Amino acid sequence: MFLLSLHLADDALILGHRNSEWTGHGPNLEQDIAISNIALDQIGQARNFYQYAAELYNANKDAYTKTFSSPAFHQVIGPIDEDDLAYLRDAKEFRNHLMVELKKGDWAVTITRQFFMSLYQQLLYSDLQYSADKRLAAISEKSLKEVHYHVRWSGEWVIRLGDGTEESHRRMETAIDQLWPYVGELFIPADFQLEAAASGQLKNPEYYREPWLEKTAAAFDQAGLAMPALNWYQKGGKLGIHTEHLGYLLAEMQYLQRSHPGAQW
Amino acid sequence: MSIESTIWNLLEEVKDPEVPVLSVVDLGVIRDVKQTENGLEVTITPTYSGCPAMDVIAMQIRMVLAGHGYAPVTIKTVLSPAWTTEWMTEAGKQKLLAYGIAPPNPKQQVCTPGYFQQEEAVQCPHCRSFHTRRISEFGSTACKALYQCEDCKEPFDYFKCH
Question: Residue B140 above 90 pLDDT?
Fold first, then answer.
């Protein structure tokens, strides 16, 4: 459960951080506020999953301590907390999907990625809210209510841009081409997901491939966008093998805590 | 009066820092108050996962109760069942309206409306017209959406049904 909770937290945090890069730079005020609100929801969800991961870690420290090699992380005295997990791990210790760490790109890339991830989270949390693990169930139940808004908002944008001008349509096609190689990873189980699936805590993510493709195709159809085939894909994020983009993101996000440990404001 | 009822009354003094007309009791985030061997235990639930007001609310609860001589106070956070606007009190809804924020409609029958599907009518808190339109599903805080009245033309916040 520790790695699973960490993975869910990492997905939410990294995507939330990427979205927060739009704060103050959105295409207009309303959408700037919308994407910032979504970032806030995701960082809140990440905190809930990190808090749970930290409790599991502290309860069984001997078993998990080798999971991380970051020297900064091991300098923490006493029990670890959510901030230690977010700020003191190195890139190879993050378990997020590769899709969330990619650069925010233009508005088309941002909303297409949000749509892909929100659809996935909607399917996942809809099941996870009934998990035998009561804590994951509670966090999922809470998160799901927010994710419904994210799906609707991003889906409307996919349709608006796909069915918009020649330029917006072209940008959507480029965004889909760029992101599509990262879709397959969502449905390939990592060991920690297989373990959780074996003990009945969640479904094997392979299970979500068909419903995800169906929902995506429905929106693409309304948007007049072509649905690519799902074949070759990039993977490795859940094992800690990341693109170069994650390092830059962490450098910015973690800089303050690494330079001034424990700083607060 | 039992100590629990006294505490519930005192909690009326703790306001939502982002919507200062609402008390935390009006908002429905106080789930339980009880006296334990180790002092008082107040159980709260967040409105939205990332709502920054929750930390301030927890601190305010401690301060108000300490101000009345109640210490120590433990604040327990629970996520399930997830907060819903159905828990907002009727008095709270009236206070929102008087403050110029449209209160949440009763929980919608259509759970997840499709793309571009119109939600049920939201009433303008200024002229009470139902002829309004949504400008953005996301407003100045996580709990609000931005609307405009087509009759009086005033923009307003809608405390969205959740």
Answer: no
- Spell out, as residue ranges, where chain A has pLDDT lower than 50: none
Neighbours of B118 (CB within 10 A): 8
Of B49, B115, B142, the CB nearest to A156: B115
Residue whose C-alpha is closest to residue A215's, from A121, A127, A97, A125 = A121
Q: Which residues of B touch A156 (CB under 8 A)?
A: 115-116
Mean pLDDT rounded to a whole number for chain B: 91
Asked whether residue A264 is assigned to any structural domain, the reply reads: no
Which chain A residues are within 8 Å of B136, Cβ to Cβ? 30-31, 33-34
What domain range is B108 assigned to? 88-159
- Is residue A91 within 8 A of residue A69, CB to CB? The reply is no
Residue A8 domain-assigned (yes or no): yes
Last residue of a domain, one of B83, B107, B123: B83
* pLDDT for position B109: 58
| % helix, strand, coil for chain B, step of 5 | 25, 25, 50
Q: Do A142 and B137 touch (CB under 8 A)?
A: no
pLDDT at B46 over 70: yes
* Whether B68 and B105 share a structural domain: no
Domain count, chain A: 1
Tell me the two tokens of residue A91.
């890139």
Split at pLDDT 50, 70, 90, the class of B111 is low
In chain B, the number of structural domains is 2
Full-prediction pTM beyond 0.80? yes
| For residue B114, pLDDT beyond 90 | no
Q: Nearest-CA distance from B31 to chain A in Å? A: 15
User: Of the candidates B50, B112, B135, which has its C-beta nearest A44's C-beta?
Assistant: B50
Residue A92 belongs to what domain range? 2-259
- The mean-pLDDT minimum among A49-58, A250-259, B103-112, B137-146 falls in B103-112
- Contact criterion met (CB < 8 Å) for A152 and B79: no
Which of A11, A20, A37 best probes binding to B when mutated, by most B CB atoms within 10 angstroms?
A37
Domain stop point among B83, B106, B140: B83
Q: Given B48, B78, B135, which is nearest A41 (Cβ)?
A: B48
Q: Are B125 and B144 in contact (CB under 8 A)?
A: no
Helix or strand holding residue A170 (H, E): helix A166-179
